[in-house]
Amino acid sequence: MCRHLAYLGPATNVAALLSTGTNSLLRQSWAPTDMRGGGTINADGFGVGWWSEDGTFARYRTAAPIWADPFVTEGLNAVRAHAVVASTRSATEGMPVERTAVAPFADDRWAFLFNGVVRGWPGSLVSLAEMLPVAELLRLESPTDAATLWLLLRSRLRSADPEPALISLVHDVLALSPESRLNLLLCNETGIWATACYHSLWTFVDEHVAIVASEPFDDDTRWRRVPDRHLVAAVPGKLVVSPLEVNPT
Fold first, then answer.
1. For a designed S-S bond to 9, which of 101, 209, 241, 242 qualifies (C-beta 3.0 to 4.6 A apart)?
2. Domain of life, per the record (predicted)?
3. Is position 197 annotated as part of the catalytic site?
4. Residue 82 and residue 46: Cα distance in Å, rounded?
5. Which pLDDT value is given to residue 133?
6. The pLDDT of residue 44
7. CA distance 214 to 210
8. What would be the CATH architecture of the domain defined by 2-243?
């Protein structure tokens, strides 16, 4: 599948965030520890997004593996940011390996990452996608389940907060495709929201930082595993982990 990470806290060097630790995101691209049958390496692309102190969002994506991209050490080493998201991709069989298929997917407010697979895509999502305006579907960045989930989530965020938007999307997708794996991660410059649905997810939160990641990137004992079928909401100094009600009333 993929590995992803979101960080909120004091401004940090983005290159260091991706490469620091005994199990950094960089290392996870070729030696992940908990893929759960979702492939063996994450070499089908790399993406990173960050918010600067003035609130400006920037994004970089490539279809190359993170270890082969000089921008990681040469470009990102000059970037400091207080909010960062990053992803290394393991493409699902049959889906394209291209830059536009790589997370983060983003608009002016949100950044979205996906670790998992929608079983039976694209047919399994037809009834949900047909509810979207045709103009939005025509702007689909890439013919993948991740890009489609982003359109569906972004539509819900126009009328709902992150928690109910994520819960309703997971519920609706599982109702159509029960074997799907749905680790979704949503972030802006003020908060992180994520779901653990089949794949691994961990958190590190203290009074200064909040980090949500597919795997811990170091050996700090403050990392906490998120139970399966749970929802995470994190900001520095506060972590809420609650059951992911996939049958909301």
1. 209
2. Bacteria
3. no
4. 20
5. 92
6. 85
7. 14
8. 4-Layer Sandwich (3.60)
Q: What pLDDT, on a 0 to 100 scale, did the predictor assign at position 52? A: 86
Active-site residue (options: 2, 102, 106, 239): 2
Query: Strand locations in the chain, DSSP E?
Result: 2-13, 46-51, 57-62, 80-89, 105-106, 111-117, 181-187, 192-196, 202-205, 210-213, 224-225, 230-235, 238-243
Low-confidence spans in the chain with pLDDT less than 70: 1, 35, 38-39, 246-249
Q: Which residue has the tokens 């960062």?
A: 84
The first and second tokens of residue 86, run together, are: 């990053």
- Report residue 45 as tokens: 């692309």
Extents of the domains making up the chain: 2-243
Q: Quick check: 136 and 24 in contact, CB under 8 A?
A: no
**Length of the chain, please?**
249
CA distances from 136 to 15, 22, 101, 147, 154 (A): 34, 41, 16, 11, 10
pLDDT for the residue 150: 97
Amino acid 143: pLDDT? 94
Lookup: tokens for 133: 């305006």
